[in-house]
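Interim report to the steering committee. The following record documents the input for histidine kinase (420 residues).
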Amino acid sequence: MRSRLFLKIYLTLLASLAAVAVASAAFVWLGQGEEESGWQSQRARFVAALIPPDMDRRSVEAALQRFSRALDADIAVYDPRGSLIASAGRPLPRDILERPWRHGGGNFHTMVTKLPDGRAVAARMGRSIGPSGRNPLAYLALIAGVIGLAAYPVVRHLTRRLERLRRGVDAWGRGDFVARVPADGSDEVAAVAKSFNKAADHVERLIKSHRALLANASHELRSPLARLRMALDLYEQAPDENRKEEIVRNLAELDMLVEEILLASRLDHIEKLDALESVDLLALVSEEGARTGVEVTGTPATVIGDARLIGRLVRNLMQNALRHGGPPVAATLAQPGNTAELRVRDHGPGIPDSEKVRVFEPFYRPSGRSEATGGWGLGLALVRQIAERHGGSVRYESPPGGGACFIVTLPVHRVARKIN
């Protein structure tokens, strides 16, 4: 069953061809009228020169005889009152001067030429003399038909690709998120198909990420919830200050985990950051280092971004080093070229090279790590998201002497100096 779009495009094309054919026919008809008018004027002057007014009747008849034989025509000359002066060939109808069109048709063509002196010359012949008598409408109809037939497969091919695109979009809309559409060619239809496939890939990744995040979050939430439930039961049986602190610690862990989940979800959906400002990165790192007990050294650097998110990035790196690494933990800020480079190093067991990329995945649990110990949570995953939203990146290196070193690179904001 052909689509409505195909019919619309094809009928629009045929209507356009019909409009062009009608306009061309009108133009040709008007042009033929002007040509015929000019031809009649020239023909009248030509015949008047061959049969001048002062020529006697016998000379006129002799001239008509020559014309009749040469043109295979019946010719007659009439005076201004319509009386016959001379003729050659078969007799012409009496009313040929008033209605010459009635005596044409078939294989005959009639014409009447009015001379400047008032005389009239009537002729009936087997072929026309003057402008071509061929009908241009036949040629226009033939051209329109050929174009219409040639356009059919072209329009059908275009609309068939659009139909495949529509079926793919419909399948994707029904929940088949792995559905893609063919992106053959380099025209606008192919560009739309490629854009759809790109958007579908992005949405599929987001859905998979959110499903994994939800599954991992529910798994990670069970441990602090179980500890909290047990601490509450024990506290009800025998209130104790240590158990109260345990309850508060578990609540803080739950609160931080929920906050990280919400932040990760928000960073997945935003295109660009709001409330950007100049951030003194060394001062921010020093403040977080003083809060967590991490030694901070380096050179000043200014970046453009969200101060709260950058602070969260620094805090996560330091807390990760303190929680999963070993003392001492140090942070160093350098400015190589147009970038600010923050290094946070610990002296713990480090991370195997085979896992240095996967460590930035949400809730990644390194091999050999027990269920009770837990995974890496969302800390490093948020570091990567925040760095990428600021046009930067994060990577892991194994420093000489052991331990782990995480390196965040952010573009530096340079302030133009005023010249007095």
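DSSP finds eight helices and eleven strands in the chain. The committee is asked to note this result when reviewing the revised timeline.
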